[in-house]
User: Fold this.
Amino acid sequence: MEKVFFGYSVSINKKQRKPALKDVKAVNDSTKDYMLSLSKEDIKERINECSIDSQAQPFENLLNSKLHDLGIVILNQAFDLKYIERVNQELIDIQSRIDDFLKAGSQFYEDEDILFQRGSKKLKGYSELSNYSKTVVQVREGQDEGMIDIFNIDRSSEVFRGMLESLKSSQTIKALTSQRTQVTPKNMNVYLNSGVQSTRGFHVDTYTEKLKVFVYLTDCMDLSNGPYT
Assistant:
C-alpha cells in the first residue's frame, strides 16, 4: 500500500508473521517423551482420576466437579455397545463413498447430501466448514495428512442424527446445563484416522468457553492408537 504525506511517497507492506512451529514442536516432543516415560500404572491412575461411570451417583455433582478441577471427564459406558456397532456400520458405508472420491482423483465433488473436498478446494476455515448446509468430507493435506474430517455428519445420516438427539436429551447435557447458562450441541463431526504420522500437536481451538465431547468408536489401547490429549 502506498500513501503520499507532505509530498513524500510512503510504502507500507504487511509482513506475514510465521508461527513459531519449532517452539511448538519442541513442546510437543517433550510432552510426548514425558508420556512415553510414564508406566502403565501411572497412566491408569490418571485415567481413573478423571473417570466416572454413567450410572454413578450423584452424577451431576461428580461430572461438574471433575470438569471444574481437571478440565476433562471420561464418562464410561456413555453409549450402548450395540449402538456403537450400528454407528461403525454406517461409517463403513460412508468410507466407501470417500474411497470412490479419492480414486477418482478429483479435488472437489458435491452430490445432494455430501460435499467432498481435498484440503480447502471450496470451503476454507472452520467457520465455513461447520456452517455449510450439507455434510462436508474434508481430506486433510499437508499437516495432519491422512486425517479425514466429516463435518455435520448428522445432516446426511439418520444414525448419527439419532446419536445427536440422544446426546441433547442425555443426563450429561442436563448435568452440564445445571451449572451453566446454556449447553447445546452445535456440531457433530467425525474424525477418521487413516494413518496420520505427523500431527499438529498442541494448539488452541478457541479462547471462549466451549465444551467438546469425544466418543471413541474404536478401542484406544495405547499411544500408537492416537489417544486424545
